[in-house]
TrEMBL record:
Any Pfam family the entry gives: FAD_binding_2
Organism in which the protein naturally occurs: Tumebacillus amylolyticus
Domain FAD-dependent oxidoreductase 2 FAD-binding positions: 21-392
Gene: nadB
Main subcellular localisation: cytoplasm
Name assigned to this protein: L-aspartate oxidase
Locations listed in the record: Cytoplasm
Residues covered by the Fumarate reductase/succinate dehydrogenase flavoprotein-like C-terminal domain: 439-525
Alphabetically ordered keywords of this record: FAD, Flavoprotein, Oxidoreductase, Pyridine nucleotide biosynthesis
Amino acid sequence: MFARFIANFTPEQATVHDTEVIVVGTGIAGLYTALKIAEYADVVILCKKGLTESNTNRAQGGIAAAIAEGDSPDLHREDTLMAGAGLNSLTAVDVLVHDGPDLVEDLIQLGTQFDKEGEDDHLALTKEGAHSRRRILHANGDATGAEIVRALAAQVRQNPRITVIENAFAIDLITAENGSCKGLLYEHEGALRYIRSKATVLATGGAGRMYRYTTNPDVTTADGFAMAYRAGAQLQDLEFIQFHPTVLVYPGAPRFLISEAVRGEGAVLRNAAGERFMPAYHALEELAPRDIVARAIVSEIEKTKSTYVYLDITHQPPELIKSRFPTIYAFCLSYGLDMTTDWIPVAPAQHYVMGGVKTDLYGETNVRRLFACGEVSCTGVHGANRLASNSLSEAIVFGKRIAERVQAFLDEPCEHIGLPTVPTRYPSPVEMIEDRKLHLQKVMVRYVGVKRTKESLERALAEMGRLAPMLSHAYSKPSEWEFINLLTAAMLTAQAALLREESRGGHYRNDFPKQDEQWLKHIVFQHGIGVIEEGC
């Protein structure tokens, strides 16, 4: 069903060029990893759009690191494991919490300007859901990701060892007969190009556009997930989708993330009747793990037959709200909502994929010379549910480790190969591709959303099955490649959710509402092999 390549090509068609290392993607994972590798190697960064267009650029809350007095890596570890609901890799979490503080300092050295406070001008820290301490560094109030991207992109632009290719669509990875990754095929300015390398790093971000409602930008179309899968890489934990509890729902406004830090600063959730409801669902109330808050909101929406609940921070001083959340305040105000006086209508939306391309502690996949970093990867740090603000930390911690591992490959002999000869497939004309994409997104929201059942998941797979013949055809346009990548990821996500007959973290089954110790294991997919179940 899944073709090895999604574009028709012949070895003669593509322009060939070489580099030492390719990095695909320009969020914090791609930019930071490229900078670390560029300390000893030449790097090409492929950007799907511009250098600063990424999920990181939208990150509001901040980056988690145990740097405060009274905090510690051990406490950060406990919080991460609690959120992850038993499926975290203990060694990966240890790496994250111990390496994170030093690498946050490295971000500062690279020009990131985190917010400071107090007479001694110390780093300002906030608290988010499921964190036991204030350990979230932030920048410009609620624009942390944009500040990190600004600083890293400036470093990338002036680095002579880094070449940036913007508006380049990565289509498929190229592998040798022994399975080793040799580079990738991409489209740029209407032409097919083959870039060969000694190592390839996927930092392509998430798969948010599988869903109708997501906080992710348009570029998050599961490209890295699907490319890696077609090349033989293992994908793990795809059933665990994080739905951010508080996303703006307002006529005329796009779905806009209202940072968890707003609840960290004291905001409460109220249902359509104005009643605060989180104390009835969890002892941590509004600061419970995201999956619990999201399900509580959905339950209240169902009870009150509404389409949203309210986020209320009006009891806090207006000066605090405006200074701490300038971006959110301005955005809401542009639609006539004043956070200082109005309750903000919110509902859950897809936010993050805990699973992804399975890697070891140095970001390497089972495909030799292929690495993954950031949301596209599955290091095991997040388990069944990511702790707030651990994603940016994970990107720099494992980006640094990837750079260490890649260096070893540069000293090994690496024979460059040409493009393979693939059987010619007639291009499949795709009419109304956007309509098909919208249909897929609605199926995912309706049947593979916050709450799932056997019946809903089977319905989702049946709907996708009608589209499945498209996976064996070749295509010629980015919109078509994106759709095939989304369909690939969506089918695997729904299949994993159907297989896991329990509720854990970001995966909730109404028909199996409890955790089951028999499911303390991972669901892994590999093209050509099928489903693999692995113990923790």
